[in-house]
């Protein structure tokens, strides 16, 4: 813009041609004749698409927006979307990596299909007037599908069994459920239920939440995108917003571990008799 104005000034004051002015200022003549367009006008379609995603999912990062736009069939390349994302100043604060001491590697299970290993955990929050709220989260480790989020002011072992019995009517029960050492999971009634259904209730080592890393990672996402994003007035409001978000998480939310697919659209061929295999 400044060089174009300088070339025009040379024409008026010194009688120079456009070619001479562009040569003197090292400005390409194609750039001189090209009409400048504001970037917000040029990228209006991307801006509108990003704003819609940000309004619906304010805690998603840029790559989740890019994967979602690809799933919707938008033709823009990721570099262009990222450039507009930066210009709109939508960047999320970067979480710095903590330096942890070395820990011995523990064996893990190689999952061949869904309903082999489920992971479960509890979370706590409060309504705006201080009433305590607890959530019982359970997910499938194979495709990160969230099977249920039970919400109430108190969740005992009997309530956990009720949720598992409800899931039994909807799908096949797993071979193992991985949990922490909370009192609800240590209750004898839950252990008896697991034995009756031939399900191993696997307890992680105390103080090692990384042994149940998938559900812990989901808990952080649920905290940032729901619990920490709203001020709830009632349990019904928590349940309503959670149910809507849960459907979106299972149907639309891209997962890096699933090659950018959502849990309900991720498919992996499995053998007829899928078994748990131990890998070091």
Structure characterization notes:
This protein is of the alpha/beta class. The chain is built from 12 helices and 7 strands. It has helices spanning 2-14, 18-25, 29-33, 39-42, 44-56, 62-71, 78-87, 157-168, 183-186, 188-196, 213-227, 235-251; strands at residues 108-110, 117-126, 132-140, 146-152, 176-179, 200-203, 277-279. The strands form 2 sheets. A 5-stranded mixed β-sheet has the order 4-3-2-5-6, sandwiched between helices. Strand 2 and strand 3 form a beta hairpin. Helix 1 (2-14) packs across helix 2 (18-25). Residues 100-104 and 269-280 have low confidence and may be disordered.
SSE series: HHHHHHHEEEEHEHHEHHE
Rg, rounded, reads: 27 Å
> Distance between the terminal alpha carbons, to the nearest Å?
62 Å
Percent of residues in helical segments? Answer: 40-55%
Give the percentage of residues in beta strands.
Answer: 5-15%
* Low-confidence segments: 100-104, 269-280
Shape: elongated
């Amino acid at each position: 813009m400044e060089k174009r104005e300088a070339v025009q000034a040379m024409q008026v004051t010194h009688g120079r041609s456009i070619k001479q002015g562009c040569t003197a200022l090292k400005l390409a003549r194609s750039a001189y004749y090209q009409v400048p367009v504001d970037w917000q006008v040029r990228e209006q379609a991307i801006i509108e698409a990003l704003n819609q995603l940000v309004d619906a999912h304010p805690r998603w990062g840029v790559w989740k927006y890019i994967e979602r736009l690809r799933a919707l069939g938008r033709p823009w390349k990721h570099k262009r979307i990222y450039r507009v994302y930066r210009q709109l100043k939508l960047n999320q604060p970067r979480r710095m990596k903590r330096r942890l001491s070395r820990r011995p590697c523990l064996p893990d299970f190689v999952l061949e299909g869904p309903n082999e290993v489920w992971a479960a955990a509890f979370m706590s929050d409060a309504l705006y007037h201080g009433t305590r709220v607890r959530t019982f989260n359970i997910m499938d480790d194979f495709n990160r599908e969230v099977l249920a989020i039970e919400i109430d002011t108190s969740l005992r072992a009997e309530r956990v069994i009720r949720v598992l019995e409800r899931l039994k009517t909807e799908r096949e029960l797993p071979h193992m459920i991985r949990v922490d050492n909370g009192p609800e999971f240590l209750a004898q009634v839950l252990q008896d239920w697991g034995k009756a259904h031939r399900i191993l209730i696997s307890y992680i080592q105390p103080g090692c939440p990384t042994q149940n890393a998938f559900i812990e990672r989901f808990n952080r996402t649920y905290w940032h995108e729901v619990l920490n994003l709203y001020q709830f007035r009632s349990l019904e409001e928590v349940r309503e917003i959670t149910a809507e978000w849960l459907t979106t998480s299972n149907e639309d939310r891209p997962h890096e571990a699933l090659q950018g697919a959502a849990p309900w659209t991720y498919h992996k061929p499995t053998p007829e008799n899928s078994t748990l295999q131990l890998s070091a």
